[in-house]
Design a protein that fits this description.
This protein is an alpha/beta fold. The chain has 7 helices and 5 strands; from the N terminus they run βαβααβαβααβα. The protein is 45% helix and 14% strand.
């Protein structure tokens, strides 16, 4: 199974995803690491990505997800803001992909983004992410108004995941 931790930038996808992967004993990946350089440059300059920009990135992630699903699973932190993006991500084997949606108020997430260092996503693009967000119907929704460790504990209790790792 591949678990995709989704939501707008700054909601805690990477933090929660890495903790969850550690507890499950499976690899963690961040979708940001799969962006082509031109997408990163665009975001660094404060310009939101278009669907055309995202398509090759989503297709690449879909291929990786298929591979991971057949090699023991993984956790992927990925914005997956639109239903069409989620369909591309799970296209190769939807039965082996599960979405977790981290959500919260824009003010809280903006505050977190402003404190974050060393990331190419500027806080100015947060509004565009909320505008693009299509809340998922088939996802486990978790509020980000709690510590990441508590989120992971809840997910492990709710999710029916099998812990293989330590921690």
């Amino acid at each position: 199974m591949v678990i995709i931790v989704m939501g707008v930038s700054g909601c805690g996808k990477s933090t929660v995803g890495a903790l969850l992967a550690e507890r499950l004993g499976i690899p963690f990946y961040d979708a940001d690491d799969f962006h082509p350089p031109e997408n990163v440059e665009k975001m660094e300059s404060g310009e939101p990505l278009t669907d055309v920009d995202r398509h090759p990135w989503l297709e690449r992630l879909s291929r990786e997800i298929e591979r991971w699903s057949h090699t023991g699973g993984a956790v992927l932190a990925c914005s997956a803001l639109k239903e069409s993006y989620r369909q591309v991500l799970s296209a190769n084997d939807a039965s082996r992909v599960r979405f977790i949606w981290l959500h919260g108020p824009e003010e809280l997430i903006r505050e977190r983004l402003q404190k974050r260092k060393g990331h190419y996503m500027p806080p100015d693009l947060l509004r565009s992410q909320f505008e693009a967000l299509e809340p998922p119907e088939n996802a486990t929704a978790v509020s980000v108004d709690q510590p990441p460790e508590e989120i992971v504990e809840k997910l492990l209790k709710w999710g029916g995941f099998v812990e293989r790792g330590g921690g």
